[in-house]
Write a structure and sequence with these properties.
Structural class: mainly alpha
Number of helices: 9
Helix content: over 70%
Number of strands: 2
Distance between the termini: 50 Å
Length: about 220
Amino acid sequence: MKEKKEPLSDRAYAYILKRIISFELAPNTPVVEDALCAELNMSRTPVREALRRLEAEGFVTKIRNLGSFIRPYTQEDIRESCEIRRIFELYALKSCIKQVKPEEISAIRAQLLALTEQSPVEAYYASDTALHNMITKYCVNTKIHEILKSLDVQLDAIQKISAQTPKRLLRSREEHLAILDAIEEVDLQKASALLSQHLENVEQSSLRAYQRLRVEKLGV
């Protein structure tokens, strides 16, 4: 079976969003479509589709007769995304803890235990995604599932901001293992408390990394 190719507009969206969140595209500066097309080696159509999506989500602002501009990405944006994630993942956890298969838990635990200080950051990202996807895939509410899916790229960007905090990756590994243990024990109260604290830690490390990035890139 052929692997389904990622739509060009999705690739453009992820690329532009990453540049906005990392301040490589400075707040309030104009969006230069030609430059983005050249960087992505794409035609205008997928890039414009991506920009329309970013505009709908509030990352780009369109001003009549002037064009599109990068909207300032704020600490409040991080807080809001993290809060949505916390509410919905805790909701999904109730279904996950009842239905998750032992082999799923074992596979993710092996992935986490294989991580060391020398492991590439991509391996940490993969284990993080695997755990949180395991929780949310058991969500019986399709609307929540859709909202979380729409936040995936933003949450992935936040994860990468958070990972820039020194030692955050190793601490996150330990937090993930503790959550996994509580799920295996079918202890919803303990798993909920650990997941909530973990997501709070991600939010706080993201906010600290955000401020560092802002100073480095913008000098403010």
